[in-house]
Design brief:
heterotrimer, A alpha+beta (266), B alpha+beta (255), C alpha+beta (230), A: alpha+beta, Ribosomal Protein S5, domain 2, 4-stranded antiparallel β-sheet, C: OB fold (Dihydrolipoamide Acetyltransferase, E2P), OB fold (Dihydrolipoamide Acetyltransferase, E2P), Ribosomal Protein S8, Chain: A, domain 1, 3 domains, 5-stranded mixed β-barrel, 6 helices, flat
């Protein structure tokens, strides 16, 4: 159901007013995430998979592993590639067609989090140096857009990677032959993305769709298991002050630790 | 895929040479927080409504603005403001290994973040139902092209007579061989531990672009943000001088 | 209360012009109690109002302006006209024809066809719709001869001069007919191409030196000199 524009604008004003008094329309605290549900191994055909529900936002991630060629200059390392699709059924605003700037940005933010934190031990994915390595395809599929696709996608991607098993193999001449049995994908770091929205000069964590429509700007900070910042992305037509960015960094550290506990014990 | 190969190839070559000497001097002679020398020119294309050119180290980037003009088809226009379109594009000969002319995913993402960096500075609400088209062409690249692109695009917008709240300046900080540095070259970026591009509007203490990839502790992150903001302030001064240089000649006619 | 620039000094977008109880005029904006420039230009003061005369800007339509436009499309009952502004203008058939509607199929192009130039006046314009033109006033309609030059719209007042003093002087000295469009287009019709050339030079010189004093005298002198050279 899509409401007429005037109704939406009135609601956006209400959201902004409440936030300047430290309250949110859905009664969350400014720093509170919506309820998160996580399921792994939901797609048997994929080598790894996960589904995250963040409030009403729903994202599914499937990981496929194939044997492929390495990049010529890192002949002993596996390859990571992240792709995202904002499928039309997820929102009246998503159109069918090739990836647009939003799905490209989403994929690249999640990719940077995994890549810069060195979450996957790519050097362990070598089959035959210079010839064959494991290629890890992370495909993000947004099923319902109710705000904060970035955090949901990043969380689902990490959960899917933790769920991923690589087939056992032996090399016969030029061929990679599959043997029975599996090995867990070597995941050694756990990057977590925390996204903020700036509304009425205040910052809130995990904006839902209507807050995203009311916001000036968006900031995502991805932190690894040692609380190092490994990816940052500001988005949206507005801006943040330097002080707001540093404040967000502090909150992101706390929130990423909280979210990481859902995936990794201890 | 092809792009990554040249990244890592350079990494293995440079392993023997250090990028920063014992007395904190960089390969091109700069100190840790020195900007590369910059040349800015305004109004160099006759067809565009506004244009500007930047050389920063080996970066050579051209920006041009067309508009505001009425947007067709009408249903794509916004009823209460202008739409800013931005195309960041790299010429095939701009990088070491020829780059295909087709827009890459990186160029699409950069077009978006650059647009979002400049939009807060423009009074888009003055021109409903129009579009402002901004083109950034990277003729030669050596690291920090999105920042140099924003810096030169801001001048092109001013040259087009589009009313603005302030100029936008951009600069990147990063970490190389354990040191925090300002304005990384391509080599420093590829070999370094972190890269943090930032765009700034001084009148509002507003950060309109912020990205980072690599690994920084929260303290290093704060220092890098501060360093990049200081770099932007220096660039802001040079942008204003470049605008003055184009228009002060006209002023000087008065006896 | 303080201002930071002298009268007629060059200012740039984002320059802080004043702080205090001032009024934000053309090409400036106010944030809190600070007034900033939005365009490159020369700052000036009018009591408590601070404004900037832009050195580079584009034409924004205003009701009552005389403009020179180019037909870019002939429609069923109207023409679309390019008036060198962010918005296209419309000239309705009803404005030109005696009867008010249903023109015969080929009648409109025979009145004004694509790429022809017209002199018109803006009768209405606001944020929600494109400017509407009329050609009903004397001197308006199709331009059949002469040369058109384009200058920055902000310089047009200088070309006109106080109470028309500048443009009238040029007309007298060169014997040319001159029609000025507020949208930066100037139509010059002379008895000979040389006369037109001199008039064009005069207008261009005014555009370059618009912000200086003693301009009228200098232009008069230049025109007379050029005529002697002929």
């Amino acid at each position: 159901m899509t409401l007429p524009a005037m109704v939406i604008r009135v609601k956006q004003k209400r959201i902004a007013e409440l936030i300047s008094h430290g309250k949110r329309l859905d009664e969350r605290e400014l720093n509170e995430y919506r309820g998160i549900q996580l399921e792994v191994g939901v797609i048997e055909r994929a080598e790894g998979s996960a589904r995250v529900r963040l409030g009403k936002t729903e994202v599914m991630v499937g990981v496929k592993i194939e044997a492929g060629e390495p990049f010529p200059d890192v002949p002993n390392e596996g390859v990571l590639t992240v792709n995202a699709e904002l499928v039309p059924l997820a929102s009246p605003t998503f159109e069918p067609g090739p990836p647009d700037e939003n799905s490209i940005e989403l994929a690249r933010i999640v990719d940077r989090g995994i890549r810069e934190s060195k979450a996957i031990a790519l050097e362990k994915l070598c089959i035959t140096p210079h010839k064959k390595v494991f290629v890890v395809f992370v495909d993000i599929y947004v099923l319902n857009h109710d705000g904060n696709l970035i955090d949901a996608s990043a969380l689902a991607s990490l959960a899917a990677l933790l769920n991923t098993k690589m087939f056992n193999y032996e090399v016969k001449g030029d061929e990679v032959v599959v043997k029975p049995g599996y090995t867990q994908l070597p995941v050694v770091n756990y990057p977590i993305a925390v996204t903020f929205a700036k509304i009425n000069d205040k910052i809130v964590v995990d904006p839902w769709l209507e807050e995203e429509q009311a916001m000036d700007a968006r900031l995502t900070m991805t932190m690894d298991k040692d609380s190092k910042v490994c990816a940052v992305q500001k988005g949206g037509y507005g801006y943040f002050s330097k002080e707001q960015i540093l404040e967000a960094a502090k909150i992101a550290k706390e929130k990423s630790e909280q979210l990481r506990k859902m995936l990794v014990k201890g | 895929m092809v792009k990554k190969s040249s990244e890592k190839a350079q990494k293995t070559e440079k392993k023997e040479e250090k990028l920063i000497s014992k007395d904190d001097v960089r390969v091109d002679g700069r100190k840790l927080n020195d900007l590369r020398p910059m040349k800015l020119e305004v109004g160099i294309l006759s067809n565009a409504d506004g244009s500007a050119y930047i050389e920063q180290g080996k970066n050579k980037i051209l920006a041009a603005v067309y508009g505001p003009k009425e947007l067709h088809p009408k249903h794509l226009a916004l009823p209460d403001r202008a739409l800013l379109h931005c195309r960041y594009h790299m010429a095939p000969f701009s990088v070491q290994e020829r780059k295909s002319p087709a827009p890459s995913r990186r160029e699409i993402e950069l077009s978006k973040v650059i647009r979002e960096a400049l939009e807060p500075s423009i009074f888009v609400e003055y021109y409903p139902r129009t579009s402002i088209d901004l083109f950034i062409e990277v003729l030669q690249a050596d690291g920090g092209t999105r920042c140099a692109g924003i810096t030169v695009a801001s001048l092109a917008l001013a040259d087009a007579g589009i009313p603005m709240r302030d100029l936008v300046s951009a600069s990147a900080a990063g970490k190389v061989e354990g040191h925090l540095v300002l304005d990384l070259t391509d080599t420093e970026d590829k070999a370094g531990e972190a890269d943090l591009p930032l765009a700034y509007m001084p009148n509002f203490n507003a950060i309109t672009l912020l990205q980072m990839d690599g690994k920084l502790t929260p303290d290093e992150f704060e220092q890098a943000v501060n360093m990049a903001v200081e770099g932007c302030k220096q660039i802001y001064t040079q942008q204003k001088e470049a605008l003055k240089a184009k228009y002060v000649v006209k002023e000087a006619v008065e006896e | 209360m303080s201002t930071f620039y002298e009268k007629r000094q060059l200012v740039l977008p984002g320059d802080l012009l004043a702080e205090g109880d001032y009024i934000a005029g053309d090409n400036t904006y106010k944030e809190g109690d600070k007034i900033y420039a939005t365009r490159i230009g020369l700052v000036d003061y009018d009591n408590r109002k601070i404004y900037v005369v832009a050195l580079k800007s584009f034409y924004i339509p205003a009701v009552g302006d005389t403009v020179i436009g180019r037909i870019i499309e002939v429609g069923m009952s109207s023409w679309t006209v390019d008036i060198n502004a962010p918005y296209l203008a419309t000239l309705r058939a009803a404005d030109v024809l005696d009867r008010s509607f249903k023109p015969r199929k080929d009648e409109l192009p025979s009145i004004f066809d694509v790429n022809e130039l017209i002199i018109a006046k803006i009768v209405s314009y606001d944020r929600t719709c494109d400017p509407l033109l009329t050609v009903r006033e004397p001197g308006m309609g199709k331009i059949s001869r002469g040369q058109i030059i384009e200058i920055t719209p902000t310089k047009i007042p200088r070309v006109i001069g106080r109470k028309g003093s500048m443009v009238n002087m040029i007309k007298e000295e060169t014997g040319c007919q001159i029609t000025i469009g507020q949208n930066g287009l100037v139509l010059i019709n002379g008895r000979t191409p040389e006369d037109e050339r001199i008039a064009i030079m005069a207008v261009r010189k005014i555009e370059e030196e618009a912000h200086t004093s003693g301009l009228t005298d200098r232009i008069t002198e230049m025109i007379r000199r050029k005529k002697e050279e002929e």
